[in-house]
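Hi R.,

Here's the chain you asked about this morning:
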Amino acid sequence: MWNYYEIIVIYDKDCGEVIVFHTDAIMNDSNDIVSQAISLGLFEERYREKVRWARAVSDYEYEHIKDR
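And the predicted structure, written out as tokens:
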């Protein structure tokens, strides 16, 4: 079973990023989600403090977010 996650990063007032990924791992909090994204190579450790939001998303949300 896949679990879906979303991370929103705000680098500065003009630049941000949305990272979505799926994994079979279950994560308990936003710190775990960010750590998993870093270990998958989706995100760099040096930007951890810029994370505004990290959360689990539903299958439906994931299908709509990943294509944007």
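Helices lie at 30-39, 59-65.

Let me know if you need anything else.
M.
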